[in-house]
């Protein structure tokens, strides 16, 4: 099936009234794309602009959920009739957390505690954006991961995100929550981490420098276009049986292939991939295949990934061809690591 560039599907059979969402980390990768999908769906309102005058902002211009006066934020949420919190704000990625471990812990743990206590007091359900890297993937190399599989976070990023999950579970039982664990999102606006973004950006913009990728090209991954994940968030935030389930759900593209096959797809779009320098010993996830059946069943078949890898890579290639955001640079964190002479390999190669 041919997928349009900006698609949305709406088929929930049990939908709340128009949700008015407070989204943490609103200038981040997921939130920027979620705003677009939410507007297109006409089901997810975004109230952050009306909250900012009451809140402390961070250096990105986002509502700072660590430093903000929580009483002011609570009053603003009540005044704006917020009926769902999407807790997306976090320090994301092994490299980002390695660059500033204190900030990562403050954002991902203390920040989540602050949001959870607000949700509890105001009785507002929360969608917590987790991650599938928390699983004990080293013992699960030969099969797909499910929500029932053992947890063993092996990096600071994974550990702090799992601590966030535990906080949500502990504090938000009565106010209700759901946890979404995405897998390898790429594309859309502001993709700072993916192999696809880095490789295409490096060639199309004329950067053309060698760069490290901390993956084993022979291992299987399941890259998902961010629009598919954002559509899943819309479903979770507006479908009462999911939003108030107090349960966790894996979200994936359901189409795993080897990392080398992903590179082949990038090359098919005319991109020079010879600048990639593989660091295979740092691939602590190995084969990473995640079963999304639980979430699809919860939506009664209304949600499924729509954008194939081939279509998604083509969309990224086309978007960089018309790139106008001079502030965007997916190599920002890698360049900072090089500049500050940080041995990032030790952060990827944690053995537990």
Could you describe the 3D structure shown?
This protein has 352 residues and is of the alpha/beta class. It has 14 helices and 12 strands. The chain has helices spanning 29-41, 48-51, 70-79, 94-99, 101-122, 156-171, 195-204, 226-238, 240-243, 259-268, 293-298, 309-321, 332-339, 345-348, and strands at 19-23, 44-46, 84-87, 126-129, 177-182, 185-186, 211-213, 220-221, 224-225, 247-251, 257-258, 276-278. The chain has a 6-stranded parallel sheet with strand order 2-1-3-4-5-10, sandwiched between helices. Strands 6-9 form a two-stranded parallel ribbon. α1 (29-41) links the parallel β1 (19-23) and β2. The N and C termini lie far apart (44 Å).
In terms of per-residue confidence, which ranges show pLDDT below 50 for 5 or more consecutive residues?
A: 1-10, 12-16
- Helix segment tally: 14
Q: In total, how many beta strands?
A: 12
Q: Quote the average pLDDT.
A: 87
Instruction: Kindly name the structural category.
Output: alpha/beta
Could you say which overall geometry the principal axes of the C-alpha atoms support?
globular
Largest sheet: 6 strands, parallel
Question: How much strand content do the residues show?
Answer: 5-15%
What's the order of the H and E elements?
A: EHEHHEHHEHEEHEEEHHEEHEHHHH
Give the terminus-to-terminus CA distance: 44 Å
Strand order of the largest sheet: 2-1-3-4-5-10
**Approximate helicity band:** 25-40%
**Rg of Cα set:** 19 Å
């Amino acid at each position: 099936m041919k997928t349009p560039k900006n698609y949305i599907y709406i088929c929930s059979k049990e939908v709340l009234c128009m949700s008015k969402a407070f989204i943490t980390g609103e200038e981040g990768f997921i939130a920027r794309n979620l705003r677009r999908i939410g507007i297109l769906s006409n089901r997810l309102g975004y109230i952050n602009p009306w909250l900012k005058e009451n809140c402390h902002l961070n250096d990105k211009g986002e509502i700072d959920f660590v430093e903000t006066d929580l009483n002011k934020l609570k009053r603003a949420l009540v005044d704006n009739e917020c009926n769902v919190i999407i807790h997306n704000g976090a320090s994301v990625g092994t490299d980002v957390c390695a660059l500033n471990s204190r900030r990562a812990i403050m954002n991902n743990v203390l920040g989540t505690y602050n949001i959870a206590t607000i949700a509890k007091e105001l009785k507002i359900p929360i969608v917590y954006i987790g991650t599938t890297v928390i699983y004990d993937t080293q013992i699960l190399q030969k099969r797909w991961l499910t929500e029932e599989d053992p947890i063993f976070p092996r990096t600071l990023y994974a550990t702090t995100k799992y601590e966030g999950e535990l906080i949500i579970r502990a504090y938000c039982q009565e106010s209700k929550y759901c946890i979404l664990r995405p897998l390898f999102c790429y594309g859309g606006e502001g993709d700072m981490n993916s192999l696809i973004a880095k490789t295409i950006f490096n060639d199309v913009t004329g950067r053309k420098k060698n760069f490290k990728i901390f993956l084993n090209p022979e291992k299987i991954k399941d890259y998902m276009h961010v629009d598919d994940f954002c559509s899943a968030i819309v479903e979770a935030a507006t479908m009462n049986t999911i939003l108030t389930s107090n349960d966790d759900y894996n979200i994936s593209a359901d189409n795993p292939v080897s990392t080398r096959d992903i590179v082949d797809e990038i090359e098919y779009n005319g991109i020079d991939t010879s600048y990639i320098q593989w660091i295979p010993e740092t691939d602590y996830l190995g084969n990473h295949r995640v079963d999304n059946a639980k979430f699809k069943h919860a939506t009664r078949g209304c949600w499924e990934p729509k954008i194939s890898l081939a279509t998604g890579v083509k969309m990224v290639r086309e978007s960089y061809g018309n790139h106008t955001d001079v502030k965007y640079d997916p190599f920002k964190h890698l360049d900072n690591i090089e500049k500050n002479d940080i041995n990032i390999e030790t952060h990827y190669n944690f053995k537990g």
